[in-house]
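Troubleshooting entry. The earlier prediction with adenosine-5'-triphosphate gave an output that would not parse, so I re-checked the input for stray whitespace and re-submitted. Clean input:
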Amino acid sequence: MTMRIPMPQPKQREFMLSRAKYTCYGGARGGGKSWALRNKANLMALRYAGIRQLIIRKTLSELRDNHITQLQLLTAGVAKYNESKYTLTYANGSVIIFGYFARESDIQQYQGNEYDVIYIDEATQMTELSYTMLTASIRGINNHPKRMYLTCNPGGVGHSWVKRLFIDRQFKGSENPDDYVFIQALVQDNAILMQTQPEYINMLRNLPDSVREGWLNGNWDSFVGQYYTVWDRQIHVTEPFDVPNHWRRYRCIDYGLDMLAVLWVAVDEYGKAYIYKEIHEPNLIVSDAARRISEINGDDEIYCTYAPPDLWSRQKDTGKTMAELYGDNGIDLVQSSNNRVQGWMALAEYLQPYTQQAADGSGEETTANMAIFSNCDNLIKNLPLLQRDDKNPSDCDTEPHDITHIADALRYYAVMHTVKSNPPDTRTEQQKMLQEHKKSMLGTNKQNRKWRR
Ligand SMILES: Nc1ncnc2c1ncn2[C@@H]1O[C@H](COP(=O)(O)OP(=O)(O)OP(=O)(O)O)[C@@H](O)[C@H]1O
Ligand SMILES: [Mg+2]
């Protein structure tokens, strides 16, 4: 029995020829990503007799629609599909296992197994934890290649880890930059789709801005489900400057052993808030956290430090609250509100862009009531990654958890009433004394009038 091998298009060929440990083909919709993924798995199965491969996608129905049916047709007479085990076994002993991860616990059934190659279709639907667990299953005592191939569109619970590894290329721990290759997909790369269904690209063009940027242009800064779609680096990030002494300064914190997130906020005379310093550090007990805050704070005079109400719950072992412990260590906290929706909305008000006359008279400029100093890397990275909660679109999703701490800290600031700073006092000492004296005389006169009545 012979099999007709379909022809890949140039970007698909690039993806299929990649020998990197992790290759991601991502970006716009319709570029031909799923096609490339399943055809790569088929070619590997034919080339390496006995190879074990896993194709995984979120739901079983998506697996059927995108991969199982097509591979069954393609390999008819060469491989046999087992409906109850979701496996496709080739005559040469190779096997493709079809897996799904609709729930986090589904991953466990694949985690204990060994695979030579794993294919994750729609990887941005997968959490970082599941992805990491799967990477540990790429093993086997044989000479077959050991790799992972991923495809994805921007947006989804896995948006941030895919972006970190393949777009921003920010590696941590033992991650080796040479192992990661990204191939940008654009719908225009799929000449076959453009020819047979030219209206598909128009459908993408007609999508709302934030969705279109991700799905048509493969832009990773704007994606389906993004909470702050107004986020714009040009508007919300500013180069650091010396904060004037008369601006009122605040701190806001979110604390847990998994992460201490602290932001320093300075408010100008018009009420615009500048986030000018940050801490984002895990594994600090309260005394160490307090020491770190004092260290970074330096001589800044802080009006108050907002913290979430849960820091006022009593600890079973000490009988004290975290807030008390912070107080004992020199950081007095003020209780903020934990009304999530109100907090996110208050932050949305701060981030909302508006136009005004430029200060230098050069015409109009777009600005917002909050700007972040460009040295606050963690806030700048994580704030635009916040996703809407599917069940309550006014709230943010609490997953991926590691991106939420610093945004939560900012929310504790935004939800509280804050006041504009007074303009600097430019009076001379003599003028001040004279005015104070006049004020006190006025007070005395008023008192006298009251008594006389
Ligand atoms: N080389 C090819 N030969 C024939 N048809 C192809 C080829 N590449 C892609 N196609 C067809 O183009 C269409 C879109 O491809 P595919 O589903 O792989 O895109 P995708 O990038 O996975 O899209 P999505 O972002 O929606 O998941 C499908 O109908 C697919 O079969
Ligand atoms: Mg696809």
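This one parsed fine. The chain has 16 helices and 17 strands.
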